[in-house]
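The methods section describes the discrete structure representation at length, but only in general terms. Each protein is reduced to its one-letter sequence and a matching series of backbone shape codes. I believe one specimen quoted in the main text would settle the matter. An entry of this sort, consisting of the sequence and the corresponding backbone structure tokens, reads as follows.
***
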Amino acid sequence: MNDIEKIFTGLGGQFVTPVDALTEKLRAVRAIVFDWDGVFNDGVKTGSGSSSFSEVDSMGTNLLRFGFWQHQNGQLPVVAIITGVINELADALVRREHFHACYSQAKNKVEVLAHLLDQHKLQPHEVAFFFDDALDLSVAEVAGVRIMVHRKANPLFTRYVVQNGYADYITGSESGHFAVREGCELMLGLLGQFDSVMLERLRYRPVYDRYYQQRQAIEPSYWLVGPNGPEPKNQ
């Protein structure tokens, strides 16, 4: 057991795919896709139908993007949220962090993923996917790297995912308890990028500053998924 594996199994994380094989799969990743409810939060809704995110998880996404940017010699990974509902805070995170896209009301998520991949000329095996529940399985079936957010309340679902090979890693952190940050740090650790990311983030210039300027230049797109597929959503 290597150091990274020991740290994350110590948190309660479960490697469904052996660490060496998962690391190899990560080397092909060019896009990171997140579900929203149950991933960035515990899935509980406010009266307005909204649900929140944590700055801890948001920072994790930024560090992970910077790590991939370094790993891929200055090429930003494509980053998107695909959610089954409309959520103003999901749009707000995408806007603030300059993700590439947010898809709302996505029921058949694998068709939405195909739209995203076509936009950026990518393949499913180049996607790392964070998910938590049944609506996400069509994407988990085809994505290259699958990070499932743990929840004690769905043991039969977890068993089903493992038995059918729909996850590579199941977080030790539960839904709503910074599981996104855990998955982001795991990937940085397996790619051997964590220490470099911390050092360059500390220095800020010139390396992190180049990444940040490139990130800030991204103009996110927002999509509402209807019977005819994704349509641009006015912001």
Summary: The mean pLDDT is 96. The longest strand covers residues 145-150. Residues 8 and 186 are 7 Å apart (CA to CA).
